Amino acid sequence: MNILVTGGAGYIGSHTVVELMNAGYHPIIVDDLSNAHYRAVDRIGKITGKAPAFYMANCTCKEQLRHVFSQHKIDAVIHFAAFKAVGESVKKPLEYYRNNLDSTLTLLEVMEKFGCKKLVFSSSATVYGPNNPYPYKEEMPAIQSTSPYGWTKVMIERILTDYCTAHPDFCAVLLRYFNPIGAHESGLLGDDPNGIPNNLMPYIGRVAAGKLEKLTIFGGDYDTPDGTCQRDYLHVVDLAVGHLKALEYAQAHEGVEAINLGTGNGISVLELVTAFEKANGIKLPYVIGPRRDGDLPAFWADAAKAKELLDWEAVYSVEDMCRSAWKFAKNASV
Ligand code: UD1
Q: What's the farthest any 2 CA atoms get from each other in the chain?
């Protein structure tokens, strides 16, 4: 089966392409490399022993997408390609809305033209917004977010829901990720953002590698057991496998389905720092700083629906996540 993977050179996309290839699928990567590196595509080839098909193309460009669809009979699409930096989205809202919405609309139009009716969409736990109690369940209202980035996910979920109403034979699986961290066991693929990382684990990796001086923990006075924020961190390889399960589900179903991908456990920033130190035998310099605007004190997934509908659950431990993240970070380029 040919699976188009938009954003397939990125952090989650590249791990998903490896799992697809290992399972016998034929992924076709479309990526404009605006926030990814071609070397990830090379490394997928090293890990799997086979080079994936790759097109350097931008999903907002209909001509480029049409070209890819004309070259391969695409059976399903996994759509990762998007701008994803929360802080940047606050400063550049138009760029975020234009890029993330346009790419999805263009992709849907081209899929329709070529009769492709199966889509797995990269959504986020951010769609639960600031007002739902945790653990988050899929039936809770997911209609609000805390940043333009997050709002693009809310809006795209809406677009896909409306599209499925108009096209009852279409299937869209909305995967709501919690906090993916960790890296491929080979140490060849991982989270390697351009510039100074915004997310916690790549920041920790650069501090551990001596490329940044110390970690600032954003806030130590939250109403949580140790005063630092709690999140549901899951291994990126578990997340990648979740996409394969969602793909199987989409093959057999029609309509729209939102599904959380998380472990169901919350751990704090301090607990993650301690786990990283213990797993890797490293002392991590850190200070407790002020809170970061927009951060919620705590949230994690109710992971029951993924188990029930996809027969998926996270299997890797926090220690696995920390060890693999460090294996990647110590060899990373930046
Ligand atoms: C955010 C977004 C989420 C998005 C994800 C990946 C929201 C509410 N969440 O998650 O939608 O999918 O990024 O881009 O918009 N931290 C520090 N020091 C640091 C960095 C982070 O203490 O240098 C803390 C944060 O305060 C937070 C935790 O680490 O408590 C995780 O932060 P981060 O990795 O940025 O992810 P989220 O903000 O949870």
A: 55
Question: In Å, how far from its chain's centre is CA 190?
Answer: 12
Question: Can you list the residues of the chain whose pLDDT is less than 50?
Answer: none
Q: Is 149 a catalytic residue?
A: yes
Torsion 69-71-76-81 (CA) sign: negative
Is the pTM for the entire model greater than 0.90? Answer: yes
Whether 231 lines ligand 1, by a CB cut-off of 6 Å, is yes
Based on the number of CB atoms within 10 Å of its own CB, is 189 exposed (0-12), middle (13-18) or buried (19 or more)? buried
Ligand 1 midpoint to CA 78 (Å): 23
The reported pLDDT for the residue numbered 333 is 60
Does the Cβ of 47 fall within 6 Å of ligand 1?
no
Which sign, positive or negative, has the C-alpha torsion 69, 22, 302, 267?
A: negative
Tokens of 254: 């029609």
For residue 267, the surrounding DSSP H or E stretch is strand 267-268
What is the Å distance from ligand 1's center to 67 Cα?
36
The answer to whether the peptide bond before residue 135 is cis (omega within 30 degrees of 0) is yes
pLDDT of residue 105: 98
Choose one of 157, 196, 269 to mutate for the ligand 1 pocket test, by most ligand atoms within 8 angstroms of C-beta: 269
Alpha-carbon distance 81 to 131, whole Å? 28
The pLDDT of residue 194 is 84
